[in-house]
What does this fold into?
Amino acid sequence: MSGARVLGSKMGENALARFGRDVLEQPGVRAVIVMMGINDIGWPGSTFAPSAPAGSVEAITAGYRQLIERAHARGIRVVGATLPPFENALQGTPLEGHYTPAKDQTRQALNAWIRSSGAFDAVADFDAALRDPAHPARMLPVYDSGDHLHPGDAGYEAMAKAIGMEMLFGNASDAGQRVVSQVAVK
It folds into this structure.
């Protein structure tokens, strides 16, 4: 969903407000992948929210914890997804300002929390799957849609390959969180 955020609503309802309708109330849902937060980080100080305070890891992770708790109460497995790099996102457009080095530090701290907190049932490391090894703050060009924020077809394919059935549905010996292995980037 374009403009989706964990916390604030502007371009539609935030994830906390719509999670029941979009996930919990859907029949047969056994797993959900939570990949949100980049707009919570990128919007403040941009055209979308010029005077909004900077997004914080603490606020976003509190939102994640609420989503996880609500899903677990319904027996739904929650896969956390790291946020891909977004250096130069929307540069040269009226939406410039989405990326700054400080915002990238927040993204990296949030990704570290996603990977290490143990809050999720599994972790899909989309950051590792999509980043340029020579410049980790950027998406590998072959995976970039061109706006430096959204993956293109090859990027979405790499993300899909980073998710396995066991990650989504677990197994009998699943005793905790798994971090998906990094996808080899060429």
